[in-house]
Amino acid sequence: MSQFLLVIPEGWTQLDWQYITNNVPNMSGPAVASMIQSGVLSDIEAGLKEAGIIPPDASLVDAKLIDDTYFMVKLG
To answer: What is the reported pTM?
Structure first.
């Protein structure tokens, strides 16, 4: 079996995608992918703040969802 190394650039944080999809309303893979693609990061930010996953004073600068498995955010 091959092993892969996921390198996350400086300034990005990987979040627990399984926890988010199971516990944060409106944060399914298709919904988040659509929000990222259309640039509606404010909805993602609001959901993550309401769930206490990101600090209330943080702002979501960018987000990436890779293969409905890895979810990374860049906060400002």
So the answer is: 0.89
How far apart (Å, rounded) are the C-alpha atoms in residues 42 and 5? 30
- Rounded Cα distance between 51 and 28, Å, is 14
Question: How many C-beta neighbours within 10 Å does residue 57 have?
Answer: 7
- Of the candidates 45, 53, 51, 41, the residue with the CA atom closest to the CA atom of residue 15: 53
Hunting for tokens 């600090």 — which residue is that?
Answer: 55
pLDDT digits (tens, 9 = 90+) for 58-76: 999 999 999 999 999 999 9
| 45: Cα within 13 Å, side-chain hemisphere | 15
Q: Is the distance from CB of 71 to CB of 32 less than 8 angstroms?
A: yes
